[in-house]
Amino acid sequence: MDAYIEPLKALAPELLLTAAALGALVLDLLMRGRDSRFVGYFTLVSLAIVAIILMNRIGDEPTAAFGMVVVDNFGTFFKLFTVASLAVVTIFVLSDRNESHHHIGEYYFLLLGAAIGIFFMVSTNHLLLLMLGLELLSLASYALAGFHKGERKSAEAAMKYVVFGGLSAGVMLYGISLLYGLTGTLDLVEMAKSTGEAMPAGLAGQLTTSAVPVALAMVLVLAGFAYKMSVVPFHFWTPDVYEGAPTPVTTFLAVASKAAGVAALLRFLGALFLGPDVQSVVAEYGASVGQLLAILAAVTMTLGNLSAMRQTSLKRLLAYSSIAHAGYILIGVATMTGAGFEAAMFYMAAYYFMNLGAFGFVLYFEGTLGSDSIEALKGYGFKAPLISIAMVTFLVSLTGLPPTIGFYGKYLLFKEGLDAGMYWLVGVAALNSVVSLFYYFRIAKMLFLKEPASGSVPRQPLFAGLLAVLCVLTIYFGLLPDAIQEFVRNCLLI
Amino acid sequence: MYFDYLNVFLFASVGFIFVFANVLIGSLIRPKRKHPEGLEVYECGEEAIGETWIKFDIRYYTVALVYVIFAVEIAFLFPWAIVLTDAMAGTGAAEGAGIGLFALVEGLMFIAILFLGLWYVWAKGDLDWVLAYSSKEFEGNAPGSAGKLGQSVEELKAASEAEAEESDDSDEAA
Amino acid sequence: MAVVNWLWWIPALPLLGSVIAACLHAWTLAARKRAPEASANDTDRAARLAWPVASLAVGLAFVLSVVAWSALSDLPPEARVLESSTWNWIDGGSISFGISMLVDPLSSIMLLVICGVGALIHIYAGGYMADDPGKARFFAYLNLFVAMMLQLVLSSNLLGLFIGWEGVGLCSYLLIGFWYEKHGTSQAGQKAFVVNRIGDACFLIGSFCLIDLFGTLDMSDIGAGVADLLQSGEHNFQISLAALLLFGGACGKSAQLPLFVWLPDAMAGPTPVSALIHAATMVTSGVYLVVRLNPLFAAAPGVLFFMGLVAAATAFIAGSAAVAQRDLKGVLAYSTVSQLGYMFLGLSAGAWSAAIFHLVTHAFFKALLFLAAGSVIHGVHGNQDMHKMGGLRKHMPRTAATFIAGAAALSGLPLLAGFFSKDEILTLTFARGGGHMGLWLVGLGVAALTAFYSWRMVGLVFFGPARFDEQKQKPHESPTSMVLPLMILAFLAVVGGALNLPAVWPFEGSAGVLHHWLAPVTRLGDEILFHGLAPHLTSRTEYILLAIGAGLALIYSHKGFHAYKHGLERDEQFQNQRPLLQGTLRDAWGIDGAYTRWIVQPIKLLAFCVSVMVDKLLIDAAVNGAARGARALGERAKRMGDGSVAQTGLWMGAAAVLLALVWMAGGGL
Predict the structure, then answer these.
(1) Inter-chain contact B141–A150, Cβ cutoff 8 Å?
(2) Which of A352, C112, C422, C465 has its CA 20 to 30 A from that of A151?
(3) pLDDT score for C221
(4) In this complex, is the C-beta atom of B126 within 8 Å of any C-beta atom belonging to chain A?
């Protein structure tokens, strides 16, 4: 019996999350007619417990469970990332003034369910489990995006998300089936190892005869990841969904869900092209895939930044900004080196602080003024100075200016890009940063350089405090990035 | 060189040809008699009303979904129930696997979770077919009122009754 | 707890005080905004707390400094180093910087001076700023300054030092322009800031040179690195370059030629600021820097001699300018520049400890003079013109007594602090021989000037007939909180010389205390500069030199006092008979004017040309064009994302295929 129970220990965080998700549902049913905030607190406590378990795992030797799940530091990093962002998102939900807080236990249930999906997505080398995790995340996200089902925009968001999501999932599955057909396995490590002496030919064998099927498979599989990360041209859902979904959900999609996409992509590429037992032909082909990613990176950041410029809704603007940031992250991925992956992971950590902060501001702002249009921001800095200053900090960080963590993250990405010889890409990225300055500072200008409309805004001191903490951390880790860098280094894939 | 893919090609071609050939042959040999009834969508004697492109009530899907979940449950539980005796005793197909109690507990947990789902669906009123959402609830979704959608059926009933009384009151006042 | 573990409290306390004072200021402002009609008495309650808080913070820092000093003196001389563990700040691969604190004999002396004099000036400022509406802001700046100054002297590497260096520069700027409503103060602050930037640029480039040479900015490593390089006999030029650039930085901060022009203008700030920042502490940080890096400078004797030339010229020009000033604080400002010249003169002769000695005594008597001058200005309601004072000793006897003690110490009357420290520098410059003999002569001349202008000040301010309407102005003595620090400083200015008595002092073991205390720090520099053969003078020569110094001081003090104790005749005479010379001296040899004409105005012209030709026509056009283009593209891109599901799906597919094709064409196959 131990043979069945022992691996379950490796899955302790996932099991706990599942229990927490079901618990959230039951709690809400039990507390009939009362405030659902209690479920939120319950969620926070469960997340804290999961986080403690995960923290204790950092630095352990990798283990495996049930032949599909890999428990390693890389996965733990992204699990912690997910838990940490989910905790903040939960606080966002709790402080959301547009939410009724009445019988919305499903909200927390869905968030936790999505987290379970992410957990499996980031801790497997097996394409089947990866796909299942991805689908679990997607299903929960669809429901979350349409959570305010009576609102037109929310419903539209959910619909678009489902349609594009289904399309890209199908495309990705087709790619996976091609890979399976070529190698006879769904395990990425096995795939990279397969020599081509037997039938099926294996990746190496296929590459020696013709790369066309492999290239096709790559494009198709990458489409799935690109969708989750909102990389051009699979980004079309992003602005509509970000705008329509409730803001905490948008935050979740922009931070945790995107990180899951990055993690899965890193794992996929790392296991397939950069692992220890990879066939040399396959490893060489990795550089070529890096080229494709570099093209995607350039197109993504350019289109994201250009589209962000003329937006009138703050949430749409941040949606395009998050597309652009996916492009920046891809620079690190496209280098196809361990150091590049490290830079991408660091940037995700930086992204955590500044984007949670920015979306938190949107939520605060929406809650107090009932609109998310940039025009309405006029003079908001004089009405709510603390969070507006915090917002400016996040904007500075998003632009990538010192002394914020965004600067250091971008610096690392650019450095790795240059080290890998992708000068043109880094050039494009630098130009993009300049363009982004334009629209980020339009917000700052609205906040502080315009005369405010009359009237005051209601205060949410605790929520503002959370934003202030994020703001301080953005600067603190910008000045002292060592702590995070050390943490990332402990959690490298390669 | 690409000979390996020839069978794929053949398979795909035969598939296409089969479909299109059937459609083509059908259109060639079927009698072309145009009655209005023949153009009906649903021709089992019932009079059809309105267009086919109508909005179905969402509850069809809800119920269908719930049904599917329990159908799948059965599909999982039959094999489990059949081998459970062997597993507990450590005989037959499960000899030496040592799965025994673990299998039982896991199966029970599976059932428990499904029942949790049933409870949820029930409590949320998705199994009731009584009350229709009035369009008012859909439109009343300015920020701050989203909670209406989460109301249980009883509450909705109570709300609509209260509303009716209110309108009576106003009539009287008028 | 080991001393090293709480060293960081020393700068942290004033920093904390600064934050609290800033909060009090914010509070006061809020109170004023809430009740615009209420009297200052009601609204400024919080601001009145700033003084005790700020003074207490610096006082506590002083206590800690004393404890650190005593812990240091318990150690054997060669082991007198307390270094707090390094906290890695920037890890840049081949080079990394930590934040760590170092207390050795040199920094312990600086700590005592900064915190001690700083505390006294804080106490004094309570009375001086009592009626100022912005006093909480003032104390926030002042405490921040102390914290930054402590960071400057405590850092064990040049980067940390530079943080403090820039921090004190910022505080100096803020405090010079403290009364920003008053005409000219903010310009003076800007001038100080801009002139200091030139020095700071030199400092930075010098630091880069050092990184290039040694791969580190840790000061003890630099010393060791210099010794190693000298062994191998290479890189002499680079060492000299680095030393020269760092001296350039010191020139900016310590107001030496050609960058001294900001200091006289800096007197626009409140007088306690002039005393603390522009006399006692910040302006001496250049001296501190040179002593701290003494092996580096010792390895560049050419730079040292150049430093001597600059110092002698500065001392002379500023000293002579002080003679012709009418503004009381102006005299003191030029006097400070001149005395700083003395310190650098000592450094150029390798007299590290003598320079520090003069730094310490100068901190005592110049802080005293500034504070007493502030007391005078306070007493005569803001008048600074000495020609409109006179006879004030009757009205403010205690201020007069302390001011005279300070002037006596400054002029180097025998047995007072200034006498010993100035003499030490002159003696060691003389002993260095060679080209330094000429510098020594200049030094003697400046000593005579110093004595003269010091007593001219005393005569004009406190003696002679009152040149103002006594009935109307009613000069008054300052409150005790202001006079008490004056008395303590006067005491120190009188006996401060005991710190480092000359070698010929008759009592055994009492001579050269400071010199021996600093020996572990200056040992390496001495070895490099003198190769173990420090210049030595016979007792007789030393006695003669002491006698010359004492004689000069006495004669010129007498001359200065007697020429001015009756009134303005001498100044009027001078102005009428030699208007050209008087004007030249008054404007400090026209250096400031020359800068305006030959540097500032051409740059302004150039800036104007650039702003019109390059900026408007070239860059703005390009940027606006690019922005317009990007905006148009953005409009396109935005529209692309706004379509229906089917349309966007089509876009998606088409783009994916296109990208895949691009990739495949580019070598993906």
Answers:
(1) yes
(2) A352
(3) 84
(4) no
